[in-house]
Design brief:
Elements lengths: L8 H5 L3 E5 L13 E2 L5 E3 L7 H9 L4 E5 H7 L2 H5 L7 H11 L26 H26 L4 E2 H29 L5 H18 L4 H13 L9 H4 L7 H18 L2 E2 L3 H9 L20 H15 L8 E2 L1 H14 L4 H11 L7 E4 L4 E6 L9 E6 L14 E3 L7 E5 L6 E2 L4 H5 L7
Parallel strand pairs: 5-6, 7-13
Antiparallel strand pairs: 1-4, 2-3, 2-4, 8-9, 8-12, 9-10, 10-11
């Protein structure tokens, strides 16, 4: 299939084009108008017939999407039927919208800020027994949450106490050692699993909320919303969740639906605070109005949803996708800071996340200016670039004893600094400047 020159700007501008997945094109259908690639290059002339050979050639060029005329859209795909099959206005969404309009965004503390009760550990490592307990407990918590999701999908009734007990255990662990909890949950979470992703987001959201000064009751509601916000993804087709191509308009609509599916499933949870459903409904809204399902802007998005929106982005960026590797935690933080300036994430929540994790987030592997290698353990206030680290290799590459307290140092008190971020052992992680990430920078991070 030879390259054909781009259509003239006048011709293209006179038509309305829509992006379509190559897989959705129906063989044998005749076009009225041309098919273009996503940059406007003519691929197939008007009045042509779609053939299997044409689709195969597109795939051989690794083209996941093409642009078709709006006039041809209903003819060459079944997408229009799918698109019209779902309505965002339901009895659940109307009730939530009414709550928003009646002042449901108001938040106040009735008790002291939870962070005031956090135990401060200074330049010390993690308690090994407590760390092992957290690692052992996490799979059980994930299995329990997965069972709850399955019960909700099957229409079985749940009691909110099952969720508040889980949230309460994480609150207690966060008060005891927030750095260690974040470190362990990040290490053991599997973002491909809905329950694991919800747990990861809940813990990170709790930490952001605590840094913003919310009290224990508000933190518990953030945790509950994090634990349940993505339940609707259980109703999204697996092939869309794991797609290795840029999602088509119709495929991404299936992703958007999960916010409504979650509301429906939460009807099976008795005693759930109303604010939790509201927050779940808004987690994927963006301050600049480019989110879903309603395209709300910052002042109409609940503060807890703005918190969890940042947690969602960080978890998504640092998790692998079929079309890219995970970003290094440093690169993910850099990305969030840029997105904050662009208005696509809440700046206050990003600032809180930066205070919690630092510019080199907890768990990051780093190389120091004296050639030693370390892993970040704790932050040091607002000194974002000089965290508390544990040296894991000396300058000759020799592995050091992880139980030796002398390997833990506060870089803000040392004449040494971080010169490089490293991928986690055995993993491929991208820097923000990596070409692969830039090729997919517009892909929806779900």
């Amino acid at each position: 299939m030879p390259d054909i020159p781009t259509l003239s700007n006048q011709t293209e501008s006179e038509m309305e084009f829509r992006c379509v997945s190559v897989d959705d094109l129906i063989v044998g259908r005749q076009l009225q108008f041309p098919i273009l690639d996503v940059s406007g290059l003519l691929l197939l002339a008007e009045s042509s017939v779609l053939t299997a050979e044409f689709k195969q050639k597109l795939k051989s060029r690794q083209m996941a999407q093409v642009k078709v005329s709006a006039a041809d859209f209903a003819c060459v795909t079944l997408a229009e039927e799918t698109y019209n099959d779902f309505k965002f206005d339901t009895k659940f969404t109307k009730r939530i919208d009414q709550l928003l309009e009646s002042g449901g965004l108001f938040v106040q503390n009735d008790g002291p800020a939870l962070r005031e009760s956090f135990v401060k550990h200074g330049c010390r490592g993690y308690d090994s027994e407590q760390q092992e307990r957290l690692r052992d407990d996490h799979p059980d918590h994930a299995a329990n949450l997965e069972s709850m999701i399955e019960d909700a999908v099957q229409g079985r009734r749940l009691d909110v106490l099952q969720l508040t007990s889980l949230a309460g255990s994480y609150i207690a662990d966060m008060v005891c050692d927030s750095d260690m909890l974040l470190h362990v949950v990040n290490d053991v979470s599997d973002d491909h699993n809905i329950a694991q992703r919800c747990l990861h987001m809940a813990v990170l959201g709790m930490a952001i909320g605590a840094m913003q000064g919310f009290d224990e009751e508000n933190i518990r509601n953030i945790a509950l919303a994090g634990l349940v916000h993505d339940w609707g993804m259980a109703k999204v087709p697996e092939e869309i969740q794991t797609a290795s191509h840029v999602l088509s308009e119709v495929e991404f609509l299936e992703i958007k639906k999960h916010a409504i599916h979650s509301l429906e499933l939460l009807e099976n949870v008795s005693g759930l605070p109303q604010v939790v459903s509201l927050v779940c409904y808004q987690v994927h809204e963006r301050p600049n109005g480019h989110g879903y399902p309603r395209g709300r802007k910052s002042h109409t998005i609940h503060p807890f949803a703005r918190v969890l929106g940042v947690a969602d982005r960080f978890v998504g960026l640092t998790s692998p996708r079929p079309y890219r590797s995970a970003l290094k935690p440093y690169a993910a933080m850099e990305c969030l800071l840029k997105q904050s300036k662009a208005g696509s994430v809440d700046p206050d929540s990003v600032r809180a996340l930066l205070n919690i994790l630092g510019l080199f987030p907890i768990g990051s592997y780093v190389a120091l200016s004296d050639s030693r290698v370390a892993r970040v353990l704790r932050t040091v206030g607002e000194n974002y670039v000089n965290p508390i680290v544990q040296i894991i290799q000396d300058r000759f590459g020799k592995r050091l004893d992880p139980n030796d307290p002398r390997t833990i140092i506060d870089l803000s008190q040392e004449d040494v600094h971080i010169v490089q971020t490293l991928s986690s052992p055995g993993q491929v992680e991208l820097s923000l400047s990596d070409e692969i990430f830039h090729q997919h920078r517009e892909i929806q991070l779900v």
